[in-house]
Amino acid sequence: MEIKKIAIITAGGDAPGMNAAIRGVVRYGLAKKLEVMGVFRGWWGLINEELKSFDHRSVSGIINQGGTILKTARCPEFFTEEGKQRAFNTVKKYGIDALVVIGGNGSFGAAHAFYKSHGIPSMGIPASIDNDINGIDETIGWDTAINTALNAIDNIRDTATSMERVFVVEVMGRDCGLIALTVALAGGCEEVLIPERKFSIENICHEIVNGNLRGKISWILVVAEGTGKAEDISRQITELTTLETRQVVLGHIQRGGRPTAASRELALRLSKESIDCLLAGQINKVVGLCCNKIVAIPLETAIQKKEIDVEGMYHLIKTLT
Ligand code: F6P
């Protein structure tokens, strides 16, 4: 099927670099003589007919901005029969041949479901701070988010060392501990608590008390949000060790901000690739870097659980502490 008109959707949690990806898809798409539309507020916009035609100027001045000019949403309604049918009606009404979906695994799951139910083809561009897309090295936004978290941890280390305290820092990652593991390793943190790995608060407290006896003066424990609340962990540490403990929740700070060069470069290269794939007749793929090469993998593969080397990273963190 010849692709003449595409619509771009940003869905799920926003990630820094999504705007660079929108810019890339619009301008490269126009250069390839495609008509390009932007859908507002994710799948909700397709259901509720919130979309408009984009030209070269529609994406001016956004390359350095975090978030998404298209806005985004979580849209459970899309997973209902009625939701998908209304989205299909919009696609047909505007003569859209394919969707370019910029998002994470929830968004790709929705794109896959839409193809199965209504035959609407998609091309996925992975953008999520979680870096949890299977089969690819890195999502757009990941580099920015981990550097934001790392800057915060570096700041915390200054005060933790000066005041000889224990800090518990909560980072994002409901189902995936990759942000926590990465910033704990890069930040030289003493402990990391992630959903993929059981932990014992008693053992951690024992280690803190023994470390302090050996003259260790400060501790930073990173906890992924899916594992527990920094507040609870910090309270338990104080109860079990009598040490003064402070907690910091980085939360949505990690989602915003100016995208790094790496996030932008990835966004722009993948946006070109997404259009080239569509024009070459490839559909229902996710474009991404794999071992530093640009690849296009099936949507079904991308939405599988990503394997991460939890034990390897955890043991390295502990060995280097
Ligand atoms: O998927 C990105 C992410 O930031 C996760 O790390 C986090 O668990 C979730 O989104 C938070 O979602 P919301 O902004 O809807 O609370």
Helices and strands, with pairings:
Elements: E1 5-10, H1 18-31, E2 35-39, H2 43-47, E3 51-53, H3 81-93, E4 98-103, H4 105-118, E5 122-126, H5 142-163, E6 166-171, H6 178-186, E7 191-193, H7 201-213, E8 219-224, H8 230-241, E9 245-249, H9 261-279, E10 285-290, E11 293-298, H10 299-302, H11 310-320
Parallel strand pairs: 1-2, 1-4, 4-5, 5-10, 6-8, 6-9, 7-8
Antiparallel strand pairs: 2-3, 10-11
Helix pairs in contact: 1-9, 5-6, 6-11, 7-8
This protein binds 6-O-phosphono-beta-D-fructofuranose (F6P).
Task: Tell me briefly what this model is.
Helix content is 42%, strand content 18%. With 321 residues, the chain is α/β, with parallel strands linked by helices. The site of 6-O-phosphono-beta-D-fructofuranose has 11 residues, from loops.
Structure description:
This protein has 321 residues and is α/β, with parallel strands linked by helices. The chain is 42% helix and 18% strand. It has helices spanning 18-31, 43-47, 81-93, 105-118, 142-163, 178-186, 201-213, 230-241, 261-279, 299-302, 310-320; strands spanning 5-10, 35-39, 51-53, 98-103, 122-126, 166-171, 191-193, 219-224, 245-249, 285-290, 293-298. A seven-stranded mixed beta sheet has the order 3-2-1-4-5-10-11, sandwiched between helices. Strands 7-8-6-9 form a four-stranded parallel beta sheet, with helices on both faces. α1 runs parallel beside α9, α5 crosses α6 and α6 (178-186) runs parallel beside α11. It is elongated, with a radius of gyration of 22 Å. The termini are far apart. The model has no long low-confidence stretch (mean pLDDT 97). The structure holds 6-O-phosphono-beta-D-fructofuranose. 6-O-phosphono-beta-D-fructofuranose (F6P) binds next to loops.
